[in-house]
Amino acid sequence: MSIKYNVQLKPYNSFRTIALARIFCEPQTVEDLSNAIKHFHNERKVVLGAGCNLFFTRDFDGVVIKPGMKGITIVAETDEYVDIEAGASEEWDQFVGFCVSHGYAGIENLSLIPSSVGASPIQNIGAYGSEVKDTIVRVKAVHINTGEYHEFTNEECAFGYRDSHFKRTGNYVITSVVFRLNKRFVFKDKYVDVSRELQGIASPSISQVRDAIIRIRTRKLPDFSLLPNAGSFFKNPLLTKEEKDALQRILPDAPIYNAGEKEFKTSAAFLIEEAGYKGKRKGMVGTYEHHALIIVNYGTESGQEIVAFMKEIQQEVKKQFDILLEPEVWIY
Ligand code: EPU
Fold first, then answer.
1. What is the pLDDT of residues 49-97, one digit of tens each?
2. Is 255 in the pocket of ligand 1 (CB under 6 A)?
3. CA–CA dist 62, 171 (Å, integer)
4. Has 328 been annotated as catalytic?
5. Which of 38, 199, 239, 271 can pair with 244 through a Cys bridge, CB separation 3.0 to 4.6 Å?
6. Residue 251 belongs to what domain range?
7. Active-site pick, 16, 138, 162, 180
8. Do 43 and 124 share a domain, yes or no?
């Protein structure tokens, strides 16, 4: 297994902030990972997937683990579905492309999300009315402190909106994920942007849906290889009925969606835009001109500068609408 020291993390995070990892290891197998964890049991640890949902504000005095498990294998099959296991380091969109090209349905709406397979359950990635939790049957992982191997059922993952047991505890390194996908694809009209994009096609195929989503995302979201960013910076706020009513008194046009946990959800992008922060730039950091929820990096290497801008947006939204936006990205 490769172990390196004093590794620059800039290429490993899509915001392109600088920080040194004192120790950096890339285990290729579950056994390697378990051994590395036991070997470095006294060190602080952090896990890196594709690095598209986190950034660094300082050097990391511990071990950065970048799981390298590869492989896509069908582990069970019936007339209706396939169970496919994919290694943690498989690139998410390549995996989606593989499934769509074989007609395996369930994750096509999650096309083009920058992620690794291993990171997908951690924050329960979601887009266009789909969440990855609805396709996951098992998650295989190793405990970050003991090195012990454990398999989680879907229920044990305790998924929520951009949330899971793994995110809440920070205790596991995911090594592979088993997805159950349908062999039959039925288009469900559940997101207006997608329906609009597919207008005129009576019953779209799975590939047409994937292509439509790729077109929408390409138009709306900045490519981090050209303009560094970490996707949606904040979560869409969950609100109680009282909080929702209070918001509607100040902003009658605020979009309100039904949500499970706290009853209602509003749009963080809308609040940021209303607060006057869409396309606003401060020094080398700003929000994207076409989408207020994305913070983009115009050329700083300092994570602190991004944090300062994040705090400014939080304060302004809190002051104007009495809602505290929580970051969706991880900040180290
Ligand atoms: N809106 C604005 N101003 C903007 C952009 C959007 O007011 O600049 C409002 C509009 O009312 C729009 C609504 O926000 O209808 C929702 O916008 P969008 O469909 O882009 O969704 P989002 O809530 O901003 C979420 C996910 C995205 C995912 C999209 C599409 C979160 C935190 N983000 O964004 O996920 O791609 O839905 O389903 O839930 C990510 O997590 O990194 C991510 C990109």
1. 999 999 999 999 999 999 999 999 999 999 999 999 999 999 999 999 9
2. yes
3. 15
4. yes
5. 239
6. 229-331
7. 162
8. no
